[in-house]
Amino acid sequence: MSTAPATPRAFRAFRALFTKIAKGSLLAVAGAGCAGGGYTPQFLAPSEDPFFYGHDSGAFLGPIEPIPDHDADGNAIRLPRGAASFADEVIEYRMGNPRPVEEGRNAEAALGPPDYQGGPVLEAPRAVSLGQGGSLTLRFADNALIDAEGPDLYIFESGPDVEASFVEISADGREWIQAGRAGGHVSAIDIASAAKPGQVYSYVRLTDDIAQGNRGGEWPGADIDAVGAVGAVVRVELSSEVLFAFDSDRLLPGGVSALDGVLDKIAGRSPSHVTVLGHTDNIGEDAYNLDLSRRRAESVAKLLEERGISRSILTATGHGEARPVADNGSPEGRRRNRRVEIVIVGGD
């Protein structure tokens, strides 16, 4: 979203004009669902001032824009899981050069449903600028990305300029696959040509395309508002400390209760596949951790089978210490890495 300075006189004239236009109109903001699925724009009364004027830089962000419900090709955006479809965690933000102004450096602005509207932004714009050639890596925590029929991923790029980014996906945050190019504004990405059949992807990395878009201004590079996964996937993470005693693969009574709670939440679904993934921290030998994580995943899968989930759709896999979600250098990081994931595909 590259922006050009506006003189105070020009700003006042434009603001007066668009204030007259905006009064009495409705402004779309992110809601709890999607057109054709679970995302439906909600509406608020208009602001008194439909512009944001950068207090230090003189940035002129332009008129209010509704939250989009169609992609750049005019197709309705469909996100069946609504607000749960969007990325949950920032893994890494590398600003390109030139860098954006301070207001554009909040990487967490790309989390959750889209909420950038231009216009009146009282604190900071609700998008993060990559800067020229910069990148942003995001993780899905309570959902995931899979290959399904049609688009699998939506990239919400905001602002008046059309600025593209390259899209990569990863199952573990280490090995990356090129999945396509987001052309700017709202781009629908089909990962069919890149994805492995049945593979669940937790990470998305966006890298600004330095060959396209406006390279100058205070918001250089693609400006990311949100990233949404289409597939009907539910992911549940449970701490190993809740499920098992130290160095054990036998479920604790509290662990059984926790798993019964998960089953209550998905009651009525008819999933096509359920995957149980065991993980450890990096304390101990690699081979032992891998075996322990596998045995724990099998214990959870056995209980799910006993509770009525067909073994034919169950897969149990151990990854040991190979897929951390936090830094193993701290006790809290190791605690987060000792976990079991349950990934439920289909059944909405």
Quick overview of this protein structure:
The protein is an alpha+beta fold and 348 residues long.
Tell me the strand percentage band. Answer: 15-25%
Structural class: alpha+beta
Low-confidence stretches: 2-62
Rg calculated over all Cα atoms: 22 Å
Please identify the top-level CATH class of the largest domain: Mainly Beta
Q: At CATH's second level, what is the architecture of the largest domain?
A: Sandwich
What would CATH call the homologous superfamily of the largest domain?
A: Galactose-binding domain-like
Number of domains: 2
Task: Summarize the structure in words.
- With 348 residues, this protein is of the alpha+beta class.
- Helices cover 17% and strands 23% of the residues.
- Strand 13, helix 4 and strand 14 form a beta-alpha-beta unit.
- The longest helix has 21 residues.
- It starts with 7 loop residues before the first helix and ends with a strand.
Describe the protein's topology:
Layout: H1 8-22, E1 27-29, E2 42-44, E3 89-94, E4 128-129, E5 135-139, E6 153-157, E7 165-170, E8 177-182, E9 186-189, E10 203-208, E11 223-229, E12 233-239, H2 240-243, H3 253-265, E13 273-279, H4 286-306, E14 314-318, H5 331-337, E15 339-345
Parallel strand pairs: 13-14
Antiparallel strand pairs: 1-2, 3-5, 4-11, 5-10, 6-9, 6-11, 7-8, 7-10, 12-15, 13-15
List keywords for this structure.
60s Ribosomal Protein L30, Chain: A; globular; alpha+beta; four-stranded antiparallel sheet; Jelly Rolls; single chain; 15 strands; 348 residues; disordered N terminus
